[in-house]
Structure prediction request, 557 residues.
Amino acid sequence: MIICPGCGADMKFDPEKQKLVCQYCDKELDPKDYRAPKAAEASEQQGYYTATIYTCPQCGAEILSTEETVATFCSYCGTSVILEGRASEQERPNMVIPFRIGKKDAEASYRRLVKQALFAPNDLKADSVIEKFRGIYMPYWVYSLETDEEFKVRGVTEVRNGDYIEKSTYEIKSPVKASFEGISFDASSGFADNLSDAIAPFRPKDHAVDFDPAYLSGYYADAGDLSPDVYRDDAKEVAVDNIAAQIQNQFNYSKYSVNRSDLKKAIHYNDSSKSALFPVWFMSVRNKKGDRISYAVVNGETGKAAAEIPIDFKKYLLGALLIAVPVFVLLNLFLTATPFKMLLASTVLALLSYVIADRQLNKVYAREMFLDDKGKKAAGKVPVDKKWQEAAAQARIPEKSNKTLIMVLKRMTQVGLWIVMLAVFLMLAGVVASVLDIDVSDSLAVSTIGAYILTTVIVTRKVGNWFNKKAGIQKKEPAVKAKSSYKSKYLFKQLAAVGIAALMLVMRPTDDYYYYIAAGVAFLLIVWSFYDIIRQQNLLTTRKLPHLNARGGDENA
Ligand SMILES: [Zn+2]
Ligand SMILES: [Zn+2]
Prediction:
């Protein structure tokens, strides 16, 4: 606690003034000029400062404060409880970015975000919830890297010359001198990686100052539990990406390659990583059932906001009806609904739903097992759910490969591959149609094409993955793929809907009645699959409540 030299009341750090301000007499004081009492000074000289650690009895989260306040709720699990505090000596971080965005501005930034989310539950917009934004200094590791070496770069240029393309290949050695300062990763396993990514970057170069506990007045700080080794390699990857992009700009090759592992070897850490506290406004909301929680965060330096916003079923249903009814009426005015067209429509919708659900299920799979959160894994946190625990123990996170990096043309080649495959499948459809003597104006033939397109998508994805592997193309983040046994529990609905449409083609019943039944069943399956998608989306925008036993199952850990 910092006592006002004028009147003896509390002083708090003010983000607008960047000064300590007395809550009673408005006296201002620069944190640099603040002199700690004698007792505190002694420990400060040894690289420590005194703080109270508040521990949540529900989830074990620890936040600290330099004031004698009473913490009445836990930001990480949302429990309203008076947190138990104990005095402790904390290691002084090397630097701090003081809060520059005040609470009101952080709230406004969050409000703008939820306003756009039409289907957000009302809870997320309630003043009583938004009030719970808490200023927390999050611990970060700040890495500095540099390189000054020669790299072998292979480049290709293509110049169109009348009817032919002149292709030249170069192999040159290029000196690259680069230094990176301030690449940072958060050091708290409680602060989810995807949220910390979403509000990045912080700019320690512009706004960091030497740490002083005076900056903590009026705020909390997360104690942090991750060593600098956890994200050391990721920091290097950021530098490698950056240099690769620079090389591209420099040479203007239509295609170039540089060996990623060479780059990695040539980049060095120029001194040990620095510890920092960065300002984050943090808020959490539990769902109606109270078993899951979503977080909202605002960067306390830049004001950038990110929030996990689930979908409210009632609002969504109402919205869907409001859109579906006029669309349906309009379609009826211009088109006559034939059973064939309905089957075609159901195939297209099933295809759409399949693609969305497939991507989403991979994400849910990774999230529930903490496979997308390096920090949680490093801290030994495991999913609460036994089922997920077992799966997580078996799961393997794909490593970033060190193969050659090819840029620019890779995407175009993929798109080309797509178009070729689609054409091949359409041709096959034509051949099948002529062999079976099917009238192409027959809508059933059209729905076969729908089924073909679905097959194309699935096959092309497989071929595309194979192609990427061969060419050494890698996504920036290696994606975790869900097991097919897990996905098939959800994706069978879309496939069944397509199957029903295809079955009608093979059976070709004469009575319209069968087509209506088939289309009806297909639509029900599709509605069911979209219901799944919303439920999965709500899993992605909420988290299981953090538990004490989530740290390796040991309550004392
Ligand atoms: Zn005062
Ligand atoms: Zn808690």
